[in-house]
Design a protein that fits this description.
single chain, alpha+beta, two-stranded parallel ribbon
Amino acid sequence: MNRATARIRVPADVGLALEQARLSQGLSQAELASRLGMPQSTVSQMETGAGTIYLRRLLEMCRELELDLSASWEAGDAPAG
C-alpha cells in the first residue's frame, strides 16, 4: 500500500487528514478504533477536532493508516513567548 502524505497548515487539517486517510482505505471509524484498541468516539473526536489530540494516539493512527504528516508554520503563526 502506498503511504499518503498530508500537509498540516492549521489544526483542523490534522483531523481532515486522518479522516481522508481512513476513508481512502475503506475503513469505518469503528474498524479503525478496533485496530488501535481505542473507543470509536476517540477516533471521531480526533477527526472532528472535538477533543484533545494526544501525540501518542495521533502517531498510532498515522502509523496504522500509513499517513505521513508534515507541518509548517509561517513566522506570524508561532505563539509569542
